[in-house]
Design a protein that fits this description.
The longest helix has 111 residues. This protein is mainly alpha-helical and 135 residues long. The protein is built from 2 helices and no strands. The chain has one domain.
Length: 135
């Protein structure tokens, strides 16, 4: 017993210590796994929050871009309308001037027929200018 028992007891103690160390390592691994799960859940939550912020920022930027485009389109439309209105005004003025010229020619022809002779437009320029101004 003297020779067999001490090595056997040492081997059993060593085996018990190895088992205890293995159980402690298992507990540590279990605890580390729980911590890692908590950390991963926190990282996922933060990532979702950041994604939501990015989406909200993108939506806000898209709204700003759309609003700027609307404003720019309104300015461009107003400019085009103003240009068209100016062109219309010029056409109306030209048409009036043409009409005045035609009316004065008709008036001269009518007056010539009434008087029985031709009226000289150069000689009666002042009178014709007055007539055109009244029209």
């Amino acid at each position: 017993m003297k020779f067999v028992w001490p090595p056997l007891m040492a081997a059993m103690q060593e085996r018990a210590k190895a088992i205890a160390d293995g159980l402690a390592a298992g507990e540590r691994a279990k605890h580390d796994l729980e911590l890692a799960a908590k950390r991963s859940a926190e990282v996922i939550r933060e990532a979702k929050e950041k994604a939501a912020e990015i989406i909200a920022s993108g939506d806000k930027r898209a709204s700003e871009i759309i609003e700027a485009a609307k404003n720019q389109a309104k300015v461009e439309a107003d400019r085009l309308v103003a240009g068209a209105q100016a062109e219309i005004d010029q056409e109306v003025f030209r048409a009036r001037e043409q009409l005045r010229g035609q009316v004065s020619a008709i008036a001269l022809a009518g007056a010539g027929k009434i008087l029985g002779r031709e009226i000289d437009a150069k000689a009666h320029n002042d009178l014709l200018d007055k007539l055109v101004a009244e029209l």
